[in-house]
Amino acid sequence: MNRRTVAALALTVTAGMALTACGGTKPAPGSGSRAPADAFDPVKVGDGDTTKGGNVNVLMSTDFQTLDPGNSNYVQTANVGQLYYRTLTMAKEEAGKPPKVVPDLATDLGKVSKDGLTWTYTLKKGLKFEDGRPITAKDVKYGVERTYARDVYTQAPQELNAALSDDGYKGPYAKGAAGDFKGIETPDDHTVVFKLKQPFAEFPALVSRSNTAPVPRAKDTKLDYTNHPVSTGPYKIESYQRGRAMKLVRNKHWDPATDPNRSALPETFTFSLSTAQSTISQQLLADSDPTAITLDSAGGLQASDAAKLDQPSIARRTASGIIGCTDVLDFNTETIKDPVVRKALALAIDRKAIQLQYGGARFGKLTQSYINPQQRGYVQQHTALDPTGQPKLDEAKKLLKGRSYPKKLVYGYADATPRYKNMGTSLQENLRQLGIDLELRPIPAANYFTTLAGKGMPDLARSGWCGGADSGSVRTTIDPNLGPSVDGKTFGFSNIPRYHDPEISKAMYALRGENGTSEELGRKWSKLFDRAMQDYPLVPLIRNVTRSVVGSDIRGAQVGYFFGGIDLSTVAVASGSGSGSSGSVARKG
């Protein structure tokens, strides 16, 4: 799941969004003026600065779910991961726009066979691991092979695996598995050949996923690999204290000549991994550390701090933009089995109140669907939800009349983010009016999505899905979130509601193997999604807008459309900041 605190390949930006000034974005105005609260043009801070050196201090309320590229479906890991690992292709960010798929370790976006069942990639020359050993095609293959060990890597991305011809492969640790994987061939050290079950037009986007980050077999420590994944990017991990701090330093074996996608300007990155969000918000607003940024959602800002963004000294340090992340409320369809009951719950929810918990219109737009009209193949979606977010209590009560439904439910929330708890308080009041007692259950943020994907999934839980490579395809939102498993027999890995309708899920599984244009196939996916949504497995909430305040010495700060936070690959530090400089940020258009 390319999840909020976490990662996949979805959602496009509104076609009519006005993009102006530097590189199609609007630089933060030096006067401190601010666009209206409901204007979502992207704003960069310190655009154009190419200063090399200094340290970026990243403030975070919780540790990363994982740093292992083979066990990650999380956008925060993908964001920091682009500093220490590389993949065959890369989803290159541009503020306010869906990312563009570009070559990374590979020389191009791949060569496809006439039947669409084979994709071939050639590795660039001069690629090395942090220990100086050359990166080979077998290292890329092994990185993918690891992700098939689902008994070990419970959060491994599965979209690429679902596309490959695997013959039931269970990963390199399974008994007798050595050499068994037929989905990838490596005829020489520089060639990687993927064998597909059926054609997949967006395949170059799939190999931008962290699955294809090379892993040296001799250094694979299974679950302990998260403590020090072997670097192929411009930085490597010097120290890592789980739940406390991490430091990245330059990888001397990274060759910038092979990597036009990463500026790698800062000398180091330090991460504080246990700073309360209220403290993050206070420190960034006060500019107490001029080199500080955060990766926390919504820039770590508290709803009570939103008005401070109007202050000129803060407005000119605020990077912002609408992002490809949508938040939803998931219903556990295994515990709330009746779709009519789920619909009643959905109609009772005050989505406008939830929007206020996000900071109001400045931080998110109410949405009626996970997919939107700008995605390829979109067809009109239908729900009974009020488009203004108001609850429909009378209608909800009518639906429940005479039906059996649970009188006690549990809402789970990530404990590091106050607005998710506050959202639960709002839900509590909504469901109380239906005679339902809602328990609020905190879940440690570092384990949140692992819990949702496992046996600890509560009755209700918030999640999010962020746009990544090939964001225009509706399939890359629909299939992961409501689609079936790789074999079609149950719900899919990222399908948090555990939704599996015999007829609809069977049709989705069959659709994976159909040929056609992305537009043609998209219409079929959209119609199936619309049918599934009549069962109300989830409730669309907020299309997110991030406004992230940065320290006054930070340059090149942009909000990543996919990452939902400051893009670490573009940031720099002002000259002299290492000696304590904290002057105002110069704007370059």
From TrEMBL:
Protein name in UniProt: ABC transporter substrate-binding protein
Signal peptide: 1-20
Organism: Streptomyces endophyticus
Top-rank taxon, per record: Bacteria
Pfam assignment, any one: SBP_bac_5
Region of interest: Disordered: 26-46
Keywords tagged on the record: Signal
Domain Solute-binding protein family: 100-470
Tagged with keyword Signal: yes
